[in-house]
Amino acid sequence: MHNPHAGAFHFPPLGYSPLVPVPISQPPIPRQPIGTTFLVAISLLGFVAVIQLLAVVIHYIPLVGKQVADSAAQAQATPRAPAPAPVPQMPQSPSAPVPADLLKAQKLFADADASYRVGDFEKALNTLDQVEALMPGDPSVLLRKSQVLERLDQPAEAVMALEEVLKYPGLPPEIRIPAEKKLAQLAETLGAATPRTQLQPGNQTAYADPAGAEVREDTGLQPGADLGIVDARLRDSKAGQKSLRVAVKSRPDSTIKVQDVKIYIYFYEESADGEVLITDSKVRTEWLSPPVDWSANEPELLDGQYILPDSGQPGSSAANGSPGRKYHGYVVAVYYNNELQDFRSEPSKLAKDFPLPLYLPKENVE
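^ that's the sequence the OP posted. Answer follows.
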């Protein structure tokens, strides 16, 4: 049937705006079919590539096998380098002390110092001989032996020990210089030594040798002592009074029990007829910075207050029934565990006239 509107021109409907485009749906892109010729060509190319790969493998496998075989044969023909021989352990020299011997030597050395300090020089020498057997040629042992031999009135043997000390290579100055000085002194006085009375340690009647206080270590202490006096100064504190300030120090890294430390200060006076007597006045002592702590390795200061006999003050010797006296000097002593550690005297003759006991008498033992 004939369409009356075919080919006719249509007006747009009312309200239509010619500026607004009307979307037009686009048909999809048609997919081209894969032809049989293309598939056959691709298959042939893949087959040819596989054939070529197999040909390469077949060609090179014999070459690789031959190279591996040649490398193995060469490795078998070449001798292996020998493994390095172990380094032999050198045995220790018999003269070199092992740790156990070092501990034993340290203990013996401390025992020798203690014997020296209390005046038992024979025992100190025997103990040092044992130390020398463990540490032959040690300069510190030889130096201590020279000191003991000098106290035993054997200056020639002391000189020989000092000469051995000075032969030691690389001797530090703190050992070499004192050894040289002492050697020069002994060389001048060789043969002029006077006998000394030996003291029996442990005996309550044994007294300190005043000359022993002259021997001190770098620490300022006497050999073998746990405590020592590093300074003592007398000064006028108040009108008619004197004060003795004593600085006492412990051996470094030592453990000191405060209750076992006893310090005695003795003031001496001279009577009208020249006799030296201990004061009749009461001496008062006090620590400057209590509580005392020896673990700090710092000196502790003790003050001893003394009233002069001619001051006329209460508490003086004159007031206590001893008139006509004048001040003469002092002696201060430090004891630890009831054993004398150190002492000072001024004048030095006081320590000879009034020797201190090496051990406190039984009535003072707590």
